[in-house]
Sequence to fold (98 residues):
Amino acid sequence: MKGEDQILELLAELLRKQDLTHETLAEMNNRLGNVEHQLDTVAEDQVAHQQISRTLALNQQKHQRELEDSMGILDPAARLQRDTNRRLDRLEHPGDFA
Fold:
């Protein structure tokens, strides 16, 4: 009878350890699911940030072209203004340019 009791105790201990193992595995699976969810969120955020970066780069290129277009208009206007100022200076002060 003593042998049977020891076997039953060992079986009970084995079942307790098996239950603990199952609980540990369930907890680990839950944690893994949380980590996977976090990784998915990080990946989604990364895609969103890449899209924002692309949009910012496109807007920057657009603004750069607009600035270059404006400079293309302002440069000749400034040149014309300088030429006009020189002519006025010559008319107002002809002795300075003799």
About this structure: The two ends are 134 Å apart (CA to CA). The CA atoms of residues 70 and 81 lie 16 Å apart.
